[in-house]
Every structure is written in C-alpha cells, then in structure tokens.
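User: Transporter. Structure?
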Amino acid sequence: MQPQSAPPHRPRAATDGPAPSDRSTWRRDLAASFVIFLIAVPLSLGIALATGAPLQAGLVAAAVGGIVAGLLGGAPFQVSGAATGLVVVTAELVQQYGWRATCAITALAGLTQLALGTARVARGALAVSPAIVHGVLAGIGVTIALGQLHVVLGDTPNSSALENLAALPSELSHPHPSALLVGAVTAAVLVGWPRLPGRAGRWLRTVPAPLAAVALATGVSTGMTVPRVSLPQWQLQALPDLPDGPVLGVFAAVLTVTLVASMESLLSAVAVDRLRAEHAGPQHEPAGLDRELAGQGAANVVSGLLGGLPVAGGAIRGSANVAAGAASRKSTVLHGLWVLLCAGLLTTVLELIPLAALAALVMVVGVKMVSFAHIKHVQRHREFPMYASTLGAVVLFGVLQGVVVGIVVTAFLSLRRLAHTRITVDEEDGSHLVRVSGQLTFLAVPKLSRALAQVPPEAPAVVELGGSFMDHTAYDTLQSWTNAHRARGGWVTLRGRGGRPIAEPASTHACRPWTPWRNHHCTRPAAPTDTLAPQGGQQLLGGVSAFQRNTAPLVRAELARLAREGQCPTQLFLTCADSRLVTSMITSSGPGDLFTVRNVGNLIPPPATDGSCDSVGAAVEYAVEVLKVGSITVCGHSGCGAMQALLDSEGGEPGSPQTTLTRWLRHGRPSLARMQRIGRLGRGEVAVADRPVADALERLALVNVMQQLDHLMAHACVARRVAEGSLQLHGMYFHVGEAQAYVLDPPSRTFTAVRPEVLDAV
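Assistant: Predicted structure:
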C-alpha cells in the first residue's frame, strides 16, 4: 500500500553532480581521483611501451586527458588518457614517420574531432554496426597481446602481428627467465586479484588490480637484471613536425586516428553513462556526445603539441571512476593533476618498474578486448561474419583496412539477406500454408507469385510472413492475390512470425497490457452522456473491452488448455496488495504460472491465530498440499503503507480505537519487534548488497520479508515439505521507484539485486 501521508517527491535538476560547496562531493571526488590515478599511471606507461613512444608520452596523455577532456567533455564521469585502441596504429606511425611526426598527426586528428563535434555528428558515429566496432577492438587486442608477449619473453616485438606470430615458437623455446617470471606474476595478479576470497580479500580488493600487479612484480624483480622504466628529466618536448611522406598517406593516418579514437571514446562514454545511470537513478542526465567528441579533440590537440600519445576515453578507467563513488567531473580533473605531480616528483619510484610488468599489463588488457560476451551477442544477431572478417583484416592489414573490410562484408550480407527469400507452400488439413522466410522485395515477387498460384481456388489459405520488411511491389502483389482469392470464395489469413496477427487498423497504437490507465488510450472511455456516471467503472469496462479486442485472441488457446486440464502452478507468490506491484510483469509470468496471494503488508499470520486470519493459511495449505507447488516467494516492496503504519504506531496510546485494518496489522508487530531488537542500523541482521539500506521504512520492509518466511515455517505442511526437500522458500524485495527486484540470500541475510543477465528464476 502507498502511505497516505507521504510528502510529494520533487526531483532535483540533473547536473554533473552536487553543488561544489557540498563537502561530501569533494570527499567522494577526491577518493575516486586517487583510485583512477593509481590505475592510470601503470596503464599509461604500458601503452607507451607498447607503441614504442617515449614512456613520458603516456603520462602526458593521462594528465592532458584528465584535465582537458575532463573539463571540456560532455561525459563527466568518463576518464580519458592514452588510447588502448590506438596502440597498434600509434606503433605503426612511430615506425613509419617518427615520434615528432606522430605528435603532429595526433594534433591534426584532434582538430578533426573538434570539427566533427562542432558539426554534431557524434550520434551518427554510433550507427556503425557493433559487430564492426567489436571486431576492430578485438583485432587490436589480438595484435597488442601478440606484440607484448615478446616483451614478456624477454625480446622485442616485430612490426606486424603475422611476424610476431611466426617468431613466437622460437621465443617460447628460448625465453628470458627473469622477464618471464615478472610477466607471469603480473598476469597472475591481474587475473586473480578481483577473485580474492574472504574478508581480507575484500579489503585487499580496494587496491586497484593494475597497481597491485605492477607493485608485486616490481618487488619480485628486486635484484634481477631486467630492463626497467627509464624516464628522461621532465621537460617540454620539441614541437611536433609535419610528416614527411605522401599527402594521401598522412590523410589516411589522421583519418585512422580520428576514427578509432572517436569510436573508442563515444562507445566508452555510452557504457560509462549507462553504468552511472544505474547509480544515479532516473534523474541522471545523459552524456552529451557531441560535446564529448569536441572535448576529446581538444585533448588530442594539447597532447600532440606537448609530446603525448593520442587520447581517448577508456571504459576501464571510467567504470572504476563510477565504482569509486565519483560525484562530478572533479574526480577526472584531479586524477590528471595527480599524474602530473607523479611525473614530476616520483620519477625515481617509477624507474623501479620492470618493462616486462608493463608489457604483461597491456597484454592482459589486449586479451580482454576479445570479449566472449561480444562474440555471443553478434552470433545471436547473425553478425559473426562481419565480426570475424573485421577482426582478421585488422590483424592482417591494419585498423583502417579492417573497418573498410567490415563495412564491405556488412553491405554484402545485408544485400544478400534482402534478396534471399525462401517461400514454401504446405497443405495441412485442407488448408494451404504459404510461409515466407526473409524480406519481401521486388526481387522475390516472381517466386511469391509462383507460390501463390499453387493455392487452389476457394481453398482456405494462411500466409505467414517471417520477415520484417515488405516493399510496395511485393505488397501490391500479395494484396491483389488476396482480393482475387477472396472474390473466388477463398479464405485468406495473413499473420506474422509465430502466428501473430498483422495488418492491424491504422488506428491501433502501441499500448502494452501493463500500461497504466492514465496513459492507456485504448481503454479511455468516451464522454458519458450522463454526467453522474462513474468514470472509474467506465475505465474498468474500457480495459476489459481492450482485453477482449487485443489480448484475448492471443491467450485464448492457452486459457482453453488450462480450462480443460486445470491449474498446475509451480510457484506460490505472496505479496502486498499495493496497486504498484504488478506480479505478472515483475516475474514475466503468464496464465497458470503463479498462485498469487495478496494482502495488506504481505503478512502471513502463524497458525493458531484467530479465525479471521484463516484466509492466508488456507491459501498456503491449498498451494502446498493440493497444488504441490515447488517454491513459495514472499515479496515486500518499497514505500509500503502497512510498514509505515507499523512505524507510526510505535509509542502509540494503548487505548486507541481498534479498526479492521489495525487488527490485521497486529500480525506485522513481530517484524517491528524484530527490527527494534536489532536496532535501526541493522547490526548485520539485514542488508542490501552494493548499497546501504535507505531508511527505517525500507529496513522494516526487508525485515518483514524475513519474519514472514519464519511464519511460513510455522505451518506444519510447509515445514514438512521443506524438510523433505520438495519445497523451497524465497524472499524478495521490489524497489518500486527503481523497478529493481532483490532476492534474499538467507545465510548472509543480504538482499542482492537481480541483474538483466541473470536467467535463473527465483
């Protein structure tokens, strides 16, 4: 139930973060800046090593990316620095043109990004197929990993991935033991650090994995003779020099740096923005991608002029920034200042780091760029050929060539899918089924006409369209045949994939079955002739009418089966009567799936209470003994009016009048007493993973779920089935404002958020 006395909620305006005068904001940003600084320093040095640029260039890129892109960019929580995706490109530029010319190309690419950001084309850049983008990143990752593996083995990388691959067997047979040990320690720590168990592991994981890996590898290398970081004295680099080579080649280099840096930054900005939205809630302001592109351009101009690597936003650093609790863009800017101070004051410490540790760090980053989650995603969308061809072309020929190959393969497959249409005609029980698989264009009209001609006159026919597109020529052919067949006495039904009806009237709209009445246009009643007619009843009748029109045809067959066979639900779902809890929507269930019991406060009175409470007990007994359900879930929710009433009753006068509602709420007093015993801070009795419990109302709702599970066990039929192992009890909490479900882990008494990638049912 919704509390009646709750004050209206007035959302704050969305900004980059709280006001600068807020001390807690400064504390959060300061703490987050140190975390990303500790990640950025070893990563920047490793990227500079992998490109063959001066190691100082990586620190310049990190400082400029933090300060310039942090101040000017449109994604406040993105952290920019030396671009991981440009390692291969930058290495080729350094070999071909030299370092000073590479800096000039970086500055020119930054000017191009500034122009693109001003032209507001950032959203257009995201139109490139994700299969191509992920293929480019994976190809770059493979190339990086192959090159840096040679450094870990104590040698130097070759100029191409194929040469690195060909030389690998001889390097593996004669490795440098000290460098290999340092690299192995670094890689092992990077992989194992996030998985450290226990309380000590949770404490150690507060140290960023890259910092821990490099620090431990440096300690292991003490006394060994291995190449180490060598930083020149901090000074302003010589001005960039224009590349000496064909204009077309220089133009291609600038275009490649612009394309890869922009795509990496924009994709990272979207990912970090999505992650930030999960923390900030619905009032979060989305990132400004055009401003972000211009900010990245400004950072690349400054980095190129100061002798730094190309700059791009990084999802690794950005996600660490959000996870560390950053409140505004100040954390990004401060991290750039710390990098600047480190480069000037901690040169001696940095020069203790072995190069094999940095190479192993970048090698692991390269391996992670080949994401199996991305491979599954593109495979599910039938885009793996684009992904594989792009990846292979990047490894064999280069980044720009890989993008071109990916675009060509995408265009070819799109045209093939558009032109490849399969049409079959089958006879089933006197009815002819014409099944169309693929898109219906003018190229498929001859095949469609031949298939339709196989349907005898006056025969019933079903035309099932499995594609998502039909051009005017195909539509006209199908419509003409349909009209002619019906004129000859035939019967024709058009349907989509899976039997869904198509060709709905133009007046149809996109209301969903769960759309609230205030937005559900198809349930809105016409103006009543009688001004005294109750609007609520008309709205309800309108909703029933919409069900009969839109939903009943889809569920009639399933309901007919249930009517014949009877109900056989597998779950008993006990929840509150609050109108905001739509159980079928939360659980994605349909008719016959849930046996649902709802009451004020999702209360389950224990047995042997007075007879007025037998309704809930009878439902529990019927579900357990007759329906033989396999699980029972008790679901509480945020903003529960029953819990608020229990909190308000603390310290009330004992002689206050008793009503039906207050008599019912006495079954929630054990929950209130339980919370009073543990205190309003919880003392380990109840918690929510990844965030603190919001307030006393939420804490009581969580405690109430646990208490009602105890009440369930007091029912003999439940206790017996649980002891047999044939019945499971679950606790759930639904946060209405966040549309987020949490499930209870009984041993830890912690409610954990259910994420979209989790497929197992409660």
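Residues 247-280 form the longest helix (34 residues). Residues 1-21, 503-510, 527-534, 758-762 have pLDDT under 50 and may be disordered.
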